Amino acid sequence: MLQIPFIDTPLEEIMAWFKDPWILAWVLILSGGLLAVWLLENITDPIPLLGTIFDGLVAVGTYIGFFVGILDIFVGYVVWSDPLQPDAIVVAGVLVLMGFCLVMRILSKFPLALVFALAIAVFGTATIYGFLMPWTTVPVIQEAALWLTSGKGLLVIGFIIFCVAYVVGGLIIKLIQLIGKIFASRPVSVLVGLVGIAVGVIIILNPALVGLIVPWPVP
Length: 219
What we know:
This protein is an all-alpha fold. It has one domain. It has helices at 5-8, 11-17, 21-44, 48-81, 89-107, 113-132, 142-148, 151-168, 173-184, 186-205. It is globular.
């Protein structure tokens, strides 16, 4: 059977990798840079060479940012869901907000049933993961529970939830479309990006200011 290390890695191990303040800080800084690059594009626009370079970075960053945005939302969930970091809600909130802004750059250009379905799929998959984790030690269903909580199993669950939500999710599309256009706008994206960069720098210099306990507590 084909084995892909990342996909076959339990979600718990992937989450643990992001529980590193240094990695967390650079996720914030780089994601913030993708959002704030529009500001540099406007500043350098009168300069022929730099203007062209930043125009290209904005175009490429829009598509790369979609996947970075998904990562941001995931890392935000990692921080928010850790009971040993009860005061890190600001860090989690900024990550989720940046992720939403980055994802909406792409999704705001498409039928927004995708946005609703993706959100439901992420939330539903995370909920099912939390429900199944205690069952991974029960001998009768241990094998099935371990597979369902692996990266591969969660991808299957997420895809099924996504398909169902996409079919029935048209009722709130207009509201999502309005919110999406606001967060995908340049002024809001640049502001959120600058906040993300600032929080990332604070984590490197003085993480206690944003409620982050360093080193990361181990249960």
